[in-house]
């Protein structure tokens, strides 16, 4: 963004804010795409191009971040309670709505539409975005679910230690033919990750419950041969018992993904849009201090066709229940 474009984005956000006596992101999501027409043309054109070409990763730099931004909350629940970073939430909804429809999960961050990615005390080693000391291994967001996002978007508000977001593009991988064949078969079992807590989501097509764990089965690589899609999360997928071929494919693929990983260090004002069908992403470990200056991102899931969610919910509601 040029300074002028940044000022324009801030202006649109302020206009929206002025219209809302009490901020309701779920209701605003219904209007965000219309309000986004006020954003700079160059930005809208860029994002529309990303959508049309299915570019695997896009970064918009220099979006407005309030100079009087609140201290980083020590956990998403505190961010929710205090409404910290509300204008930035709005900016992400505005900009993201050019790429897709915002949605959330009833059992993730209490059903919030926009998530806070901040380290939380006691969660340092967890396998969720609240971790810090443990690295977040390369993953597809919400790998188990057929309505997982087309784009996971992350808007950086603070990143003082220059912690990297890691990612591997499927285009960077050269699978041996026999591995690609196995990966294309519907033989991998995917599970909800640890960020899905509390209330159980509605059953989804093709779901199986083994013991008390829900799972879906599918391929890792699928879609157009010349522009393939993937889903992968070593921590939340398994081979069925005695299926050595699948277990080996998971391990080998994980190693290939790690070997081809790149990193991007998000700066305040950067928003990254990660194509969740073309890239797996993760995060480097870091040291959380809980001093108000920790790393802080806003996260928003975007789907191209929100009607899939409405149909699944049996209600015109963009929080998956
Ligand atoms: O913190 C990051 O850079 C990425 C975290 C992540 O994987 C997520 O929030 O989905
Ligand atoms: Fe993620």
- Can you summarize the main beta sheet? 7 strands, mixed
Uncertain segments: none
Helix tally equals 8
Class from helix and strand fractions: alpha+beta
Question: Mind telling me the C-alpha Rg?
Answer: 19 Å
Overall structural domain count: 1
CATH homologous superfamily designation: Clavaminate synthase-like
Domain TauD/TfdA-like: 96-300
Organism: [Actinomadura] parvosata subsp. kistnae
Binding site for Fe cation: 139, 141
InterPro entries: Clavaminate_syn-like, TauD-like_sf, TauD/TfdA-like
General description of the model:
- The structure is a single chain.
- The protein has helices at residues 3-19, 25-35, 41-53, 76-82, 86-96, 177-183, 244-259, 307-313; strands at 57-60, 101-105, 114-117, 136-139, 151-158, 164-169, 188-190, 208-210, 213-218, 221-222, 229-230, 237-238, 262-265, 271-275, 279-283, 296-303, 319-320.
- With 321 residues, it is an alpha+beta fold.
- It starts with a helix and ends with a strand.
- The mean pLDDT is 96.
Chain-wise SSE layout:
Elements lengths: L2 H17 L5 H11 L5 H13 L3 E4 L15 H7 L3 H11 L4 E5 L8 E4 L18 E4 L11 E8 L5 E6 L7 H7 L4 E3 L17 E3 L2 E6 L2 E2 L6 E2 L6 E2 L5 H16 L2 E4 L5 E5 L3 E5 L12 E8 L3 H7 L5 E2 L1
Parallel strand pairs: 2-17
Antiparallel strand pairs: 1-14, 2-16, 3-16, 4-15, 5-14, 5-16, 6-13, 6-15, 7-9, 7-12, 8-9, 10-11
GO molecular function: iron ion binding; oxidoreductase activity
Keywords: Iron, Metal-binding, Oxidoreductase
InterPro entries: Clavaminate_syn-like (IPR014503), TauD-like_sf (IPR042098), TauD/TfdA-like (IPR003819)
């Amino acid at each position: 963004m040029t300074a002028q474009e940044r000022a324009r984005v801030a202006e649109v956000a302020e206009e929206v804010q002025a219209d809302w006596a009490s901020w309701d992101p779920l209701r605003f999501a219904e209007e965000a795409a219309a309000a986004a027409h006020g954003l700079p043309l160059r930005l809208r054109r860029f994002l529309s191009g990303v959508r049309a070409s299915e570019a695997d990763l896009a970064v918009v730099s220099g979006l407005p971040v309030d100079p009087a931004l609140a201290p980083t909350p020590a956990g998403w629940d505190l961010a929710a309670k205090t409404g910290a970073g509300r204008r930035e939430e709005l900016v992400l909804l505005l900009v993201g709505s050019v790429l897709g429809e915002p949605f959330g999960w009833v059992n993730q961050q209490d059903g919030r539409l926009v998530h806070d990615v901040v380290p939380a005390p006691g969660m340092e080693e967890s396998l969720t975005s609240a971790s810090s000391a443990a690295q977040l291994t390369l993953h597809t967001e919400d790998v188990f679910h057929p309505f997982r996002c087309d784009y996971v978007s992350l808007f950086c508000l603070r990143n003082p230690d220059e912690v990297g977001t890691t990612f591997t593009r499927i285009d960077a991988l050269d699978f041996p033919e026999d591995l690609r064949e196995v990966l294309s078969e519907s033989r991998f079992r995917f599970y909800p990750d640890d960020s899905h807590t509390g209330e159980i989501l509605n059953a989804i097509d093709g779901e199986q419950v083994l013991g008390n764990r829900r799972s879906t089965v599918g391929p890792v690589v699928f879609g157009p041969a010349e522009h393939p899609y993937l889903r992968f999360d070593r921590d939340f997928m398994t081979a069925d018992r005695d299926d050595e071929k699948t277990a080996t494919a998971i391990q080998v693929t994980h190693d290939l993904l790690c070997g081809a990983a790149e990193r991007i260090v998000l700066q305040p004002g950067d928003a990254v849009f990660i194509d969740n069908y073309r890239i797996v992403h993760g995060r480097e470990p870091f040291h959380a201090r809980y001093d108000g200056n920790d790393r802080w991102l806003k996260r928003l899931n975007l789907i191209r066709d929100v009607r899939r969610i409405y149909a699944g919910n049996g209600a015109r509601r963009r929080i998956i229940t």
